[in-house]
């Protein structure tokens, strides 16, 4: 104990870095010499004896034979490091740094001095004796005197001593100590690989075990970050050793998270997102199979942990991209993900008799939220939705039960997540596949590979927590004979409440077409099990079962159609795609046309004929071939129908197809009707008013043409609508108005686009509308080239990033239309692009600026007409395409522009090389021979 106290007193007397009393020395060398003097007075040992004492304490035969090499040519710093090493070794060996006993406690002052001495050892003993490769890089954090040479024997000795001390949890080591310690280990390994230094095989294994112990004990993020630093310092020929260590640690448990957070702290990932860097490092197809499996499992665990953790949630994108790439690598990874996915929903699929509560509500919400993030957060980062197709009945059943719960406050989030998962599955299916899914839900006949929620697993209230739910198991009979069983209604409700209007339209058309195409069940099959001795209850159950089997599909279709038809955007989509509806009706008529009168359902036929009459009366662009097909089927159907009302309705419909009657409305009444609809707050009524105005303009209605300003004001006000289909139809109205008074329409749109007091979203919409109007009238808009180009170029100078991006994008499209008219504006245009590329900070705007030049080149017909513009464009695009530090998409746009220029140059040279066609103009009737008279006698005509 007295010996240890002696070393503590010696440690207190030393001048160590970070201690205030070290300021009395003029330079670092004086401090080191003073410390050596103090140590020699206390220990009375020469450097060679110090080395021998350290090796003896280590009890290493390997180092015993290398004492002379260790003590050879020792500089002042080397001597000081050896003296300090003996002090550290003695204190670490004599004091139990892991004990919490009172007699073993160390004061904070002693801990500070001890760690400061360790930093001195690292600075004077480790850093000068690293592998030479660590000093070659200009940005290296390691340096030494030019005269110094690496002594691997000395580095190995220091590593052995530090390995017994560096892992003490009571000592808060600095990151620099760990970094230098790892650098020393890798220095020895690199020297052994290059045969510059020789150690026994068991020593190499011991060095590797030291690295593994650091990986186990210290924060894995710090370890991986140190590996990245060392990898960046070493030259290329010496990187493989550390690269191999990085891969081994990445494949081990916790490696993915370590890499993720190490890259977050790295400054080298500013040029590209972390997700791209992680994806390239993690999802390599060349990795061994077990390594890829380890990474998949690590990422899945990380995603499960990140759902409810805001700090980890920001990295879910990088994890999802990596998982998707690993999933696409091979079939083994796909099976691993599928197995994991089934495990997430497995508790809902089977019945366990030994427990009541299957899952707590929080766990259920977490799992559904995880699936939502994995499949719905992005179209790029997400997992393929086809993985969830087999679980569609499970998700629909869960959504139905969640929506039936009375407490909506805490079920809203999980209900939205389930709905988004279902919509993603349906929206990513092809036309035939979607039809098959809808048909399966209508008939309740699912493919064999599909999975279903167990009927006895339900969502119920939690009696211990009144404001919570739980997933429980109850012994209850399956309601297979319910009249309206099935989940088609739930799907229809989800579609109605969503923004997937096109998907809603596709499902509506599919259901509409299935109405008359459902498989029929014969009466013999229904009544095959009749029994005269059945009880009254059995008879009722049988009636319900028979009705369910025969009519359940049609009942579900009717209910679903009734739900979907209330979806406001659906009516507009039906009117815009009226041909699809008529084709479905045509198929229905074709089926009825080949059946007998007994098989024709008069109520269904009445509905079909009424619907067809409404469509033909209101639709203005029905194709003639569709009308003729309808007329042909109606002609075949009319003789077979015996019902006089149906026969009369069919006759009227045939006459309507042959020659529709005109509606007698005055001009002003029709205008006011359209205006009333357009001023309505409901989007679908606004679109109907727009359609009426367009029709009035096409018919050249006098009252409408005299009120162009009123219609323009109404259209501009309608542009503020947040509904996309309202905006698109409003653009169609502007395109129609342009043919009436194009100058006024152009000026109105340009003024509103440059109106700084208006909302930015509205100005962006006006800009798109202006561009679509230009596309509508095509090259005729050259008369307004000055107005249009100045408008968009003024927008390119806006301080708003999104507005500049929109202006450059619209300007690129306009240059495609007015390529030949850009000459006098070219200098200003090029200046705008250079300004955005050099000073702009919004990357999408820069990309759009480069796209202007690319689209301008694509629109050029004859390069000779643009020869004064080609050289500046070529130089700028060539510079952007060859700059490696530029944005990848900017380089892509530049490369596309150069490719367009190359193709057009080749076409020009080919045209020049071809022989020129000579035109000969001959004027007949001058100095020609006199024609023979045709009225001569036949004998003289020859």
TrEMBL record:
One of its GO terms (biological process) is protein secretion. Residues 672-780 form the RNA polymerase II assembly factor Rtp1 C-terminal domain. InterPro entries: ARM-like (IPR011989), ARM-type_fold (IPR016024), Rtp1_C1 (IPR019451), TANGO6/Rtp1 (IPR039600). Transmembrane segments: none annotated. It holds the Pfam family RTP1_C1. It comes from the Eukaryota. Belongs to the Tango6 family. This is RNA polymerase II assembly factor Rtp1 C-terminal domain-containing protein. It comes from Stomoxys calcitrans (Stable fly).
């Amino acid at each position: 104990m007295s010996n240890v106290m002696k070393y503590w007193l010696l440690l207190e007397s030393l001048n160590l870095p970070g201690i205030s009393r070290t300021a009395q020395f003029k330079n670092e060398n004086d401090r080191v010499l003073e410390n050596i003097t103090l140590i020699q007075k206390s220990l009375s040992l020469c450097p060679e004896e110090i080395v021998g004492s350290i090796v003896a304490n280590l009890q290493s035969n390997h180092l015993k034979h290398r004492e002379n090499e260790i003590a050879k040519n020792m500089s002042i710093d080397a001597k000081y490091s050896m003296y300090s090493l003996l002090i550290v070794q003695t204190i670490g060996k004599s004091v139990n740094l892991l004990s919490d006993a009172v007699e073993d406690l160390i004061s904070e002052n002693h801990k500070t001095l001890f760690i400061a001495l360790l930093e001195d050892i690292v600075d004077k003993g480790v850093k000068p004796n690293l592998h030479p490769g660590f000093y070659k890089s200009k940005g290296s954090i390691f340096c030494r005197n030019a005269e110094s040479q690496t002594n691997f024997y000395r580095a190995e000795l220091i590593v052995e001593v530090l390995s017994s001390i560096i892992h003490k949890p009571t000592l808060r080591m600095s990151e620099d100590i760990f970094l230098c310690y790892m650098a020393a280990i890798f220095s020895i390994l690199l020297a052994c690989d290059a045969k510059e230094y020789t150690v026994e095989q068991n020593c190499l294994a011991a060095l590797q075990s030291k690295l593994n112990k650091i990986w186990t004990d210290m924060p894995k993020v710090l370890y991986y970050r140190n590996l990245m630093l060392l990898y960046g310092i070493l030259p290329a020929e010496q990187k493989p050793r550390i690269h191999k260590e990085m891969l081994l640690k990445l494949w081990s448990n916790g490696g993915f998270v370590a890499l993720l957070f190490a890259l977050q702290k790295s400054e080298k990932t500013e040029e590209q997102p972390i997700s791209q860097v992680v994806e390239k490092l993690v999802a390599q197809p060349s990795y061994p199979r077990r390594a890829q499996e380890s990474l998949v499992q690590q990422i899945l665990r990380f995603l499960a942990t990140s759902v409810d953790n805001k700090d980890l949630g920001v990295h879910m994108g990088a994890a999802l991209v990596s998982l998707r790439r690993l999933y696409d690598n091979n079939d083994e990874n796909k099976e691993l993900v599928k197995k994991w996915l089934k495990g997430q929903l497995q508790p809902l699929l089977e019945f366990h008799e030994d427990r009541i509560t299957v899952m707590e509500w929080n766990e259920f919400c977490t799992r559904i939220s995880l699936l939502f993030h994995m499949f719905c957060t992005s179209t790029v980062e997400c997992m393929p939705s086809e993985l969830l197709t087999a679980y569609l009945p499970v998700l629909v059943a869960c959504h139905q039960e969640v929506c039936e719960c009375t407490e909506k406050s805490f079920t809203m989030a999980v209900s939205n997540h389930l709905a988004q998962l279902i919509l993603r599955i349906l929206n990513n299916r092809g036309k035939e596949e979607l039809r098959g899914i809808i048909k399966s839900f209508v008939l309740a006949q699912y493919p064999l590979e599909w999975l279903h929620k167990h009927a006895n697993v339900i969502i119920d209230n939690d009696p211990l927590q009144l404001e919570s739910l739980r997933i429980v198991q109850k012994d209850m009979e399956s309601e297979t004979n319910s009249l309206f069983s099935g989940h088609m209604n739930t799907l229809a409700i989800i579609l109605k409440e969503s923004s997937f209007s096109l998907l809603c339209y596709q499902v509506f058309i599919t259901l509409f077409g299935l109405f008359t195409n459902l498989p029929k069940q014969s009466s013999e099959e229904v009544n095959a099990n009749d029994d005269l001795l059945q009880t009254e209850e059995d008879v009722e159950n049988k009636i319900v079962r028979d009705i369910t089997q025969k009519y359940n599909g049609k009942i579900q279709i009717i209910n679903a159609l009734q739900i979907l038809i209330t979806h406001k955007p659906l009516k507009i989509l039906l009117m815009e795609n009226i041909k699809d509806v008529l084709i479905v009706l045509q198929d229905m008529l074709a089926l009825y046309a080949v059946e007998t009168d007994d098989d024709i359902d008069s109520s269904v036929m009445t509905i079909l004929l009424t619907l067809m009459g409404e469509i033909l009366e209101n639709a203005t662009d029905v194709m003639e071939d569709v009308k003729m097909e309808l007329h042909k089927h109606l002609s075949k159907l009319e003789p077979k129908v015996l019902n006089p009302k149906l026969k009369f309705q069919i006759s009227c419909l045939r006459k309507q197809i042959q020659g529709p009657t005109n509606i007698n409305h005055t001009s002003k009444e029709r205008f006011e009707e359209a205006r009333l609809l357009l001023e309505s707050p409901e989007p679908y009524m606004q679109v109907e008013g727009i359609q009426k105005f367009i029709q009035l303009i096409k018919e050249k209605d006098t009252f409408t043409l005299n009120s162009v300003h009123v219609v323009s004001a109404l259209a501009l006000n309608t542009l503020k609508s947040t509904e996309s289909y309202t905006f698109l139809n409003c653009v169609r109205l502007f395109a129609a108005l342009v043919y009436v008074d194009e100058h006024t329409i152009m000026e109105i749109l340009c003024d509103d686009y440059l109106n700084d007091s208006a909302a930015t979203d509205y100005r962006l919409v006006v800009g798109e509308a202006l561009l679509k109007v230009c596309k509508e009238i095509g090259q005729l808009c050259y008369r307004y080239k000055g107005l249009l180009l100045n408008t968009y170029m003024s927008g390119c100078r806006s301080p708003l990033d999104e507005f500049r991006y929109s202006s450059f994008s619209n300007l690129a499209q306009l240059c495609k239309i007015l390529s030949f008219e850009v000459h006098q504006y070219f200098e200003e245009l090029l200046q705008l692009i250079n300004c955005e590329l050099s000073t702009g900070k919004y990357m999408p705007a820069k990309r759009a600026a480069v796209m202007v030049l690319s689209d301008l080149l694509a629109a050029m017909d004859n390069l000779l007409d643009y020869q004064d513009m080609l050289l500046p464009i070529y130089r700028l695009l060539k510079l952007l395409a060859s700059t490696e530090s530029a944005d990848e998409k900017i380089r892509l746009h530049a490369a596309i522009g150069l490719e367009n220029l190359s193709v057009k140059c080749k076409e020009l040279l080919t045209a020049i090389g071809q022989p020129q066609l000579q035109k000969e103009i001959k004027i007949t009737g001058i100095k020609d021979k006199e024609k023979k008279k045709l009225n001569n006698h036949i004998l003289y005509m020859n």
